[in-house]
Write the structure tokens for this entry.
Amino acid sequence: MPEQYAYINFLFEGSTEEALAEYRRLTKLATGGVGMDTKEHNKIVDELMEKNSISGDPGMIETMNIEQQGIIQAIKKSRARLKARGVEIN
């Protein structure tokens, strides 16, 4: 999936520190991207937690934004670490 780029132009009056804080706030909003519908993403997270797998189209991961993909990866890595330590999960 190609990276998404955007141009944002805004006027701001304030100190350099305030401008930098506003820049960081705006770029943080942009890094999430559009992504998958929250309800659908929650359904996938629930399925992963319950069954340790995700059914459906493998390409659905590509429809998630960076934050949503990170959540899925964090769950998968956590389950792998627990399994490696011998902790029994679903």
User: Anything to note?
Assistant: Helices lie at 16-31, 38-51, 66-84. The chain has a mean pLDDT of 84. Residues 17 and 38 are 34 Å apart (CA to CA).
